[in-house]
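look at this fold:
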Amino acid sequence: MDGEAVPARLRRLWRVPVTSRLGRPAELDVDQVVHAAVDLADQHGLLGVTLPKTAKELGFTTMSLYRYVGSKDELFVLMQDFAIGAPPEIAADDWCDGLREWAKAERRITHRHPWMAQLPVSEPPTGPNQIAWLETALRVLRPTKLDWPQKMGVIMLLSGYVRHSTELSEELETGRGDIDEPEATRRYGASLAKLIDPETFPEVAEMLTAGLFEASPGPGEDPAEDRDFTFGLDRILDGVAAMT
């Protein structure tokens, strides 16, 4: 591959080697910069990632980073592709089960790196890991009768659902503070039950008395097996199945 014919930001994203003209060996590389930025995001969230903070973490000046990353927006793209890593090995024979495995794998990754759900979406997948995930999903969908736009629509819908689920989960966790999820859910149900008039809100009142908010999952549960997440995922896949 002629690295000079590829835009600089894509060369860095795909780690295409280019002969240096600076006359001295590089003190850093793209991977080191991205690793440091991902560590900052994991510790402090996306707002904690800036070029100056990343440079300080590495012990370099901000200007020195521009040799390896062109802007903060480019850094975010590099971080996303690094954090998502390699796609899962899909063992399912049925395409519907395969898509379920694919979406659950993505949900587990965004749970480990919740800042990924806050990244701006400015372009289609461009990084090598993202393309590998896309390839895996398209391979799973190959037995279906869906055309290419429909396949891309299904993949975007699933990724969007994972993103939304992660954002909602993180917002709820932040809002709970130090209270664990089961206790916060029970308190919500108990407090609301005292306020709801069964004659005004009969459906809500019946739902509260059904014990829905007493059966909350305990801490440490696999986020990809959360009942709310799997319910929504199954409904999406039901809709896709109806298209084939």
Remarks:
- The longest helix spans residues 148-176.
